[in-house]
Specification:
Elements: E1 7-18, E2 21-33, E3 38-42, H1 49-57, E4 65-73, E5 76-77, H2 83-87, E6 92-95, H3 99-102, H4 109-117, H5 126-139, H6 145-150, H7 158-170, E7 176-180, H8 188-205, E8 208-213, H9 216-222, E9 225-230, E10 233-239, H10 240-245, H11 250-257, E11 305-308, E12 311-313
Helix pairs in contact: 4-5, 5-7, 7-8
């Protein structure tokens, strides 16, 4: 019997009609997540990480959007199907990026958590439902959960709102959690606390995670595997240790070189240039205009090539590690 991944994204493409033309944002994005696995999706701002999560969740709707490809959950197609509506908040949890904007200011925290719980347990008595949502807040280290449940989002700090969102995503014990840069708007101490709580809970429940982030330190501590995204394309993928120790794509190396170091190693190195215009992206490798190692063959499509056990790179330099 062939093993089926919990989530498999195949050749996901996203285009958007704009007043300047058709913007080709996501190009042939493919990734997978196994049961109980933590996977990170990294890249600079504007590369399509959050759009990838929203496409998986079926949240990209509207005139001018063109989405194609396959998104399989437990082997069954969910892209563009009613099934995703039944899975959201039940088997697939979502932690959005902005805690202040993601909770409804006109409803109490208790009302919002109860609404999520009752998607699964519609006939649960009120007392048991209240105990369940209180326990969910305790699990994410919320002090004085009774006060928080009685509060409205605008009465809470950003850190507390973020923990409420984590509790909301995990209260129904989903099989998969999609986390879109949780803690980005928070200070580093609170961010570390919320990520620690998320890791503890996902390990406890056995949930898989896709974590979108630009913080490579978080990736090193949190994830099992990492996908590196540039301008809407996957340029490298593999176990975190392998990718961080021997990056094979020039963009991955540039990301690692841009990280500040506390001791030795000199100053972080910036990356010249900018993400290409999506209405007229370069042919072949989209990183080519910014790459110091670009060759004529880079103008051709670069498939992911395996360079080590589970480690793949979309680059003609796959046989060597470029050093700048």
């Amino acid at each position: 019997m062939i093993a089926v991944s919990l989530l498999e994204v195949k050749q996901l493409n996203l285009s958007l009609r704009t007043h300047t033309g058709l913007a080709h944002i996501l190009k042939d994005v493919s990734l997978r997540v196994e049961a109980g696995e933590r996977v990170a999706l990294v890249g600079e701002t504007g590369c399509g990480k959050s759009l990838t999560l929203k496409a998986i969740l079926g949240l990209l709707e509207g005139k001018g959007l063109v989405v194609s490809g396959k998104v399989l959950f437990e082997g069954e197609e969910i892209l563009g199907t009613p099934r995703i509506l039944r899975l959201r908040g039940v088997q697939i949890g979502f932690i959005p990026q902005d805690p202040a904007a993601s909770l409804n200011p006109t409803f109490s925290i208790a009302d919002q958590l109860l609404a999520v719980v009752r998607r699964v347990r519609r006939n649960l008595p009120k007392e048991k439902a209240w105990a369940l949502i209180k326990e969910a807040l305790v699990e994410v280290a919320v002090p004085d959960p009774d006060r928080v449940l009685a509060s409205y989002p605008f009465q809470l700090s950003g850190g507390l709102c973020q923990r409420v969102l984590i509790a909301t995503a995990l209260v129904n014990r989903p099989k998969l959690v999609l986390a879109d840069e949780p803690g980005t708007a928070l200070d580093v101490t609170v961010q570390a606390q919320t990520l620690r709580a998320m890791r503890h809970l996902t390990e406890k429940s056995g949930s898989s995670v896709i974590l979108v982030t630009h913080n490579l330190g978080v990736v090193r501590e949190f994830a099992d595997r990492v996908y590196v995204m540039y301008a809407g394309t996957i340029v490298e993928h593999g176990p975190v240790k392998s990718v961080f120790q021997t990056p094979r794509h020039p963009y991955t190396r540039a990301l690692l070189d841009s990280v500040p170091r506390l001791t030795g190693g000199g100053l972080p190195q910036g990356l010249d240039g900018h993400i290409p215009d999506y209405t007229s992206p370069p042919k072949g490798c989209r990183f080519r205009p910014r790459c110091a190692f670009a060759r004529p063959e880079c103008a051709e499509e670069q498939p992911l090539r395996q360079v080590a056990e589970g480690h793949e790179v979309a680059c003609v330099l796959y046989a060597e590690v470029p050093r700048g």
